[in-house]
Queue: 2 jobs
Job 1
Amino acid sequence: MSETLDIARKNANAPTVAVPVQDVPAAEESVSAMPSLVGLTRTALAETLGDLGVPERQRRMRAAQLWSWIYSHGVTDFDVMTDIGKELRTRLAENFSLGRPAIVVEQVSSDGTRKWLLRFPPRARGEAPVEVEAVYIPEHDRGTLCVSSQVGCTLTCRFCHTGTQPWVRNLTAEEIVSQILVARDRLGDWPGASRPTDGFVPDAERAISNVVLMGMGEPLYNFDNVRDAVLIAADGDGLSLSKRRITLSTAGVVPMIARAGEEMGVMLAISLHAVRDELRDELVPLNKKFPIAKLMEACRAYPGLSNARRITFEYVMLKGLNDSLDDAKALVRLLKGIPAKINLIPFNPWPGSPYECSEWEQIEAFADVVNRAGYASPVRTPRGRDIMAACGQLKSESERVPAWKRRVAEGEDAH
Ligand code: SAH
C-alpha cells in the first residue's frame, strides 16, 4: 500500500474536533469604506499615484515602494512606509485603505487545516456584502492555501457542495489577493511575524508555499480578475510565489484553457471525474458544452506542457459510479500521450450529498492500475473534513439579492 494512501486512510478515520478561534478581528473593524490599493496591477497602481498628484517621473519608483510594503511586508498602515514622504503618506491614507476582509469565522481542524469564512464589504451602494471561504492545508514541507474565485458557482456539479449555492458574483482581483494576505496575517507569514501556536504550521521559511485556485467558483469564468490576482501573487518583488507553485483548477472551460497558459503560465488541474461523456454530463454538467474529447484536445495543446510541467487530472472517487477497474483502464487510455498526474480524491460528503465515497480497497486497486501505467496517482488525503474544509465542502450563506428586495430593505432602514 502506498504511504500516501496509508496516511489518507488514517486521517479519514481520525477523531475530529473543530476548534473555533476567538481572537480574530471583529467583522466591523476590518471593513473600510475607502478603495483599496490591493489587487491593482503595477500599471494601475502607478496611474493611481498620478491621480494623487505624484509627478510622472516618480510614479514607477513610488509604485515599487508601495508594492514592496504591501506584498513583501504585509503592511496595512501607510504611516509605517518610512521611505515615502509624510505628505504623500497622508494623502494615501486619506484616499485609500489596505484593509483586510473581515474574518467572520476561523476554524482549526484537528489535522491543522484552517478555514476562514471571509466577508467582503459591498463594492457599491445597494450591494450586499459577500462571504467566501479560504482554506490552509499544512504539510511537513509545504503549506498550501486554497482560495476562492467566485461567490457561489454556476456549474452545479452534482457532488460538490459549492454547486448547491447559486452563483452570486465574481470576486475582484483585490478580493482574491486579499485571501492570501489575510491568511499570511493569521499564519504569521510576514518577515519578523510569529507563527500561531494553535495547530500545526510547517517549519519552513514560508508558511504558504503553494496556492491553489480550488476553492469556491470556476476560475476560468472569472478570467481577468483571476489573471490579475495570479500575476500579483507571482510577482517576484512581492508575494513571490513561483508559478510552478500556483495551480488553477477548472471543470473544463475549454475556450479559456489556452489563455490560462499564455497569460498566467500557472500549473493546470482539470476536474475530470469521469471518462465517459454520459456519466460526466451528469456529474459535471459543463461537459454537455465542452465534452471530453474537446477537453483533451485543449489539454494536449496547453502552453508550456512538458514532463516537468504536467497537468493534474482530478478524479473524485464515487462508489459504484466511476471507480471500476475498467474506468481506471479507460482513464489511462484517455490520457495517453499527455504529461499527466492523476489525483484521486476520496469523495467528501456534505449534508444531503447524493453520493458515497468509494471503499478504500477500491481506491487502492484503482490507483494500482493507474500507477502501473506509469502515472503518479497520489490519493488526496482528506484534510479538514471535521470543519467542512475538504475539497468540495466549501459554501457560504451569501445569496443574490434582487434589486427590488434591496430597495425595500434600504427603504425600511431609512424609517
Ligand atoms: N471549479 C473548479 C474549482 C473547484 S476545485 C473546478 O471544478 O476544478 C475543487 C475540486 O474539488 C474539484 O476537482 C472538484 O471537482 C472537487 N470536488 C468537488 N466536490 C467534491 C467532493 N464533495 N469531494 C471531493 N472532491 C470534490
Note: Residues 225 and 392 are 22 Å apart (CA to CA).
Job 2
Amino acid sequence: VAEAPAAPAAGAKPRALKKESLHVLRKLTLEDVPAEAIRAQAEELRKEQVKGEPAQPRKSTKDLSHTAARSNQEQIKRKEGVVELPSQLSVKEFAEKTGVQVPKIIQVLMGSGIMATINQTIDYETAAIVADELGVSVKKAEASVKAEDIFSRNIEELLKDEPENLQVRAPVVVIMGHVDHGKTSILDAIRETDVAGGEAGGITQHIGAYQIVHTPKGSSEHHPITFLDTPGHEAFTAMRARGAQVTDIAVIVVAADEGIKPTTVEAINHAKEAGVPIIAAINKIDKTGADPDRVKGELASHELQPEEWGGKVPVVLVSAKTKQGIEDLLDAIVIIAETENLRANPKRNAVATVIESHLDKSLGSLGSVIVNTGTLHTGDIFVCGETMGRIRTLTDAHGVKIADVPPSAPVRISGFDDVPSVGDILQVVASEAEARVLLDAVRERGQLQKKRSFVDLVSRLSEGKLTQLKVVLKADSQGSLEAIQGSLAKITGEAVGVKVIHAAIGAVSDSDVMMAAASDGIVVAFHVAVPVEVKRTADQEGVKVREYDVVYALLDDIDALVKGLVEAEEEESVTGHLEVKAIFLTKKNQQIVGGRVTDGVVKRLPFRLMRASAEVGTGRISSLKHVDKDIKEAKEGTECGMRVESTTPILEGDILEVYVKEFKKKAE
Ligand code: GDP
C-alpha cells in the first residue's frame, strides 16, 4: 500500500510555512518564466526607473498586458507619494499599504508567474516589481528602532530608563568552578530549599535557569534569586561574547579537599573580566581532609582576599551533601545583590537574553530567556538575534504556564520562527511589520560586524580609542608563561597597555577564544597547538589567534600591534619545505614522521600538507628531533624526525610547507 503523503504536523507554525512557501514560489517563478524573460523585464524596469518615467505595461512570454488595464478609478484610490514597505509582507498588507485591491495584486503576481494567496508573504524585491507594475512608488522602510540598539553590544542602551521607573529586581547568579567540585550538587541543594516551588506542583524542567525565593533567618523579607542552572563558565562566556549581560553575581565553587584547580582560575578570570562580584563557596566541608583555611589562602593568592581577612570577597563554607551552609550562601547573595543595587523597569516592553535554545519536535523552536528589563507577556511580538516571533506560551522551571514574566525571571518561550542562539537579545516590538524591518537591519549589520572585529580592533588601537589590548595567553610551560606575561605587561604604546586577562598552560581551547571574544581581545599561543575546531570557533567569533615560536617575535609583534603599527591583515611567509621519507606512527591527530629539509628551515610551526603540488591538509609540527636529540630547527639538507598534529594522514613523499604568520607592518 502506498503511503499517503504526510499531513502537516499539528500546531505547525504558520510563519515558518510561509517562509517555505515563499521559497517554493521563487522556484515557481524561475521555472515558469524563462530566465531570459525575467532578466529582460528587470532590465527594462531598471532603465525606466533611471529615466524616472512611470512603468509601462510590457509584453513578455507570459502576457502581462492584462495588468495594463488599469482604470482611472483604481488610480484614485491608490496612495499618493512614496509608500514605505518592510522587507517582507503579506499580499494583504501590501494591499492595505498601497491602496491597491487584493485581486489586482494577485493578478499581477500571477502575470509574473507567482501564484499567491492573500496571506502569502512576498519579499520587498517582489513587492517593488509589482508596485512598479501597478504604478505605485515604493521604498524600503527603515527601522524605527535603531539596529545598533538591538545589538547586544549596546544592551546598555536598550536597558536605559528614567530613574523613577526603576524598581529592585532579583539577582541572577552563575555558579562556576572546577569539574567535580560540586556545582551541580549546590544548584540541586538550593533548588530543594525552595519550599514554595515544591508546592507549585509542576514537574521540574531544566530551562537553563530557575528562580527561588529566599527568606534570610530572622527576616520576613522574601528575596527572589535566579540561578543559571548550566554550571560552568562556558555558557557564561558564550553569552558575554555575544555582548549579553545577564549575570550579576558569580559563585566560585572550590572543593575544600582539593583546592584551586586550573579551571577554577579560568572561572575566576572570567568573572573578573566580566566585572561581576564574586562569592567563594568552599564546598565538601563534610569530607575528611577538607581544609577550608588552605583554600582561603589560595583564594587570596588569586586576588580574592576573603572578607574575614579584610578583603572584599565573601567566603562561605558549604556542603551540598549535608546542606550545611546553603542558607548562608543564599544570605551572602542577598547582601551582595543589595549592595549592587540591581534595578529594572517592569512597566515597559521587555528586553531579555536567551540562555538556552533548541528545536522541539512537537513545539518547534524553543528558547529560554532571562528578562533583563520590562515584563514579557504572551502574545508579545519580538525580534531576537537574527530571528523573530510572537510569544505563544511562557513556561517556568516548574513546568507551569504563566502569562507574564517580570525582570530577572527565567522562562521558556515557544513561538520563535527559528531557533535563537544563546546570548541573543530578545526585544519586544510594537508590530510584526516593525519586527521585520528591524530584523533586516540586524541581519545586514550582523554579518558585517562578525567579519570586521579584528580589523576594528586594529583600527581602534591605532586611533587611540582603546586603552588596553586584552590578551589570553597560552604557552607550553610555566616558565615561558611567566616570562612572556612579565614582558607583555611592560609593553606600552602612547596610551595603550597590554592586559593579560588569562594565562595558562596547554593547547588553545574554545573557552580561550570565547574569553577573548567576550573581552574584545586576542589569543596568543606560544608553542602550543591550536586545534582545527578551535580555529573554526575563532573564525566564527572574529577572534585573532596568533601563534608564535620565538619569544622575541611574539613581543615584537604585540608591541607593533599596541603601537598601532600593523595592518589588520596578516602576511604568511614560508620558512622552508620538508619531504616526508618515513611514517613511524599514525594515531588520531598525532603522527610521527621523518624527512629531509629540501629548502629553508623547518621549525615547530604550522604547515600545509602538499601532495602532487596540491594542498591536501594542514597541521603543525609540535616537536623536532635529530636522531634522538630535541632540536629547535632543521636546516636545508638535514634530516629530522617530528611529531606532527594533523587530522590528514601523512604519506611518504608528501611535502610539508612550513610557514609563519606575521602581522603586516605599516609602511613607514
Ligand atoms: P560539578 O562537576 O562541579 O557539577 O560537581 P558535582 O555536583 O557533579 O559533584 C561531583 C561529586 O562530588 C559528586 O559525586 C557529588 O556527589 C560530590 N559532592 C558534591 N558536593 C559534595 C559535598 O558537599 N560533600 C561531599 N562529600 N560530596 C559532594
Note: The CA atoms of residues 299 and 305 lie 6 Å apart.
